[in-house]
Amino acid sequence: MSVDLSTVYLSLELRNPIVASSGPLTGNLASLQRLEEAGVGAVVLPSLFEEQIVHDQLEVERLYEFHADANAESLDFFPELNDQYSTPNAYLQRLEDAKRRLSIPVIASLNGASDGGWIDYARQIESAGADALELNLYFVPTDPEMSSADVEQRYVDLVAKVRDSIQIPLAVKIGAQFSALPHFAGQLALAGADGLVLFNRYLEPDIDLDRLHIKPELVFSQPFESRASLRWIAILRDQLPTVSLAATSGVHSSETAAKLLLVGADAVMMTCALITHGPGFVTKVVAELADWMVEKEYDSVGQLRGSMSRDNTPDASALERANYVQTLAEFTSRHVV
Ligand SMILES: Cc1cc2nc3c(=O)[nH]c(=O)nc-3n(C[C@H](O)[C@H](O)[C@H](O)COP(=O)(O)O)c2cc1C
């Protein structure tokens, strides 16, 4: 028996819900092709970063000596990014190449936090042929004068600006640390987000005790990190029925993918697992997902998607305070004598 794995994400028809999220494997034409051959539903290219765009603009200005000394420091400290991706033009070229080579949807990614000229690249990304744009908003507020409402408004304004400048579908990738996510998610949708990608992983800094300096460190995700997406997609699914929801962080297996689809994800994204096991891992995940659906007698992803969302599950309280007292009491009686 075969099952229909197709899904619609950001109005795009995907052959299955497994998406290779932004990361090193989607930054290279050879691995993009291997991902497509392995059966991935869509790919999200690595981000074009605000810092890259600003750096490029400063380089041009310096070249023409408009501001000979201004911001020289930021030029000197800009990290060397690998190969051609390090300039915005190279990014657009790579996007065009990916579109030419692949037949699955290619989603581009723009990553920033401030109001500025970098947003103009959304239009150029659209012109270069992206099927959709993922806007990764990553901002760490450190100013005590800035309220959570200010932070949210900043995100909403950025989304509205990008929305105004492009026609292609727009997804917004955010972190999980918002105090009233359902309201904020609704505001992002009102500002023009067609989809939400939940949740971005922030780089938490560490301290090098020998050299006594702070070092930002990228560590691979762990499967438990998918739990935040699981909870919030379950809660948001019925509140935002027309908004696409994608899960990212901690998806390392077909089991986790199945759980995220059950709570209402339209697409399930993977990066670290694909780096660890290689692009071919997609084939295994897709096949196992199909096998599990057959075993549970689901005909299609459409049928299973959201069948355990907050409105559709009898255990909704487990999504909220997670039966807090009962769960703690059970744990204590099992593990502490
Ligand atoms: C090496 C690496 C590079 C990444 N680059 C980007 C990026 O350019 N833009 C972005 O939005 N996310 C980026 N991510 C985040 C991933 O897209 C993904 O959201 C995150 O790794 C969590 O998913 P995972 O647990 O499946 O890895 C990157 C992740 C890794 C590990």
Reported by name, the CATH topology is TIM Barrel
Content-based structural category? alpha/beta
Strand order of the largest sheet: 3-4-5-6-7-8-11-12
Can you say what the CATH homologous superfamily is? Aldolase class I
The total tally of domains equals 1
Helical fraction equals 40-55%
Tertiary shape: globular
Number of helices: 13
CATH class: Alpha Beta
Let me know the number of strands.
12
Instruction: Give the H and E element order.
Output: EEEHEHHHEHEHEHEEEHEHEHHHH
Oligomeric status of the shown chains?
A: single chain
| Through-space gap between termini | 49 Å
Low-confidence stretches: 63-82
CATH architecture classification: Alpha-Beta Barrel
Proportion of strand residues: 15-25%
Ligand roster: flavin mononucleotide
Output mean pLDDT: 89
In brief, what are we looking at here?
With 337 residues, the protein is α/β, with parallel strands linked by helices.
